[in-house]
Amino acid sequence: MTYRVCFVCTGNICRSPMAEIVFRARVAEAGLDELVEVDSAGTGGWHEGDGADPRTVAVLEDNGYAGGHTARQFRSSWFSHLDLVIALDSGHLGALRRLAPTEQDAEKVRLLRSYDPAAGDDDDLDVPDPYYGGMDGFEECLEMVEAASVGLLAAVREDVEGQAA
After folding, report:
1. Which of these is catalytic: 9, 39, 53, 116?
2. 9 catalytic, yes or no?
3. Can you give the pLDDT at residue 163?
4. Distance (Å, whole) CA 14 – CA 78
5. Which terminal residue of the chain, N or C, has fewer Cβ atoms less than 10 Å from its own Cβ?
6. Which of 32, 37, 29 is nearest to 7 (CA)?
7. Which of 14, 15, 24, 26 is catalytic?
8. Which pLDDT score is estimated for 21?
9. Residues of the chain with pLDDT under 50
């Protein structure tokens, strides 16, 4: 049985594709790529059909990540086939939970940085939107995504092993 994770930000061209590509690499490194499917989407459809922001691509490539991307908008109907929906900020978290057709679906939505133990109990677990800034914002975004991916991978591994048992 395939475990499905979808990362969601606003336009699906900066944060969520970065998280998708980084997490897919972590899943492959862990040998779980046959069991875990990773993708991403946006809460809005403004960029549907576009590739990732060139700054996202540059930061990923500079750090050894590869992968193509085409933006799309998250659909309520997807909840039925997803195991985990990862929001990149609290605005996305609220929007996705409101979009969820059932309480069980709403419980699938989590903030990415909630998986980063170094983020602590900080009230602000948002990954800041780098779109209107410079390259340093994209680099900071990557650091946050990589840090949270360790804990997320551990949680997903536990869920996958639980499904296999």
Report:
1. 9
2. yes
3. 81
4. 21
5. C
6. 37
7. 15
8. 98
9. none
Identity (one letter) of the amino acid at 51? G
Set 33, 50, 83, 129: catalytic member: 129
Asked about 15 being catalytic, the answer comes back as yes
Among the listed residues 108, 57, 55, the one whose alpha carbon sits nearest the alpha carbon of residue 80 = 108
Give every strand in the sheet of 84-87, ordered side by side.
Answer: 36-42, 3-9, 84-87, 109-111
6 is catalytic: no
Residue pair 112/152 in contact (Cβ under 8 Å)? The answer is yes
DSSP secondary structure string, 38-51?
Answer: EEEEESS-TTTT--
Instruction: With beta carbons less than 8 A apart as the criterion, state whether 63 and 81 touch.
Output: no
Residues 6+ apart with CB under 8 A from 3: 35, 36, 37, 83, 84, 156, 159, 160, 163
Q: What is the pLDDT of residues 100-148, one digit of tens each?
A: 999 999 999 999 999 998 887 667 899 999 999 999 999 999 999 999 9
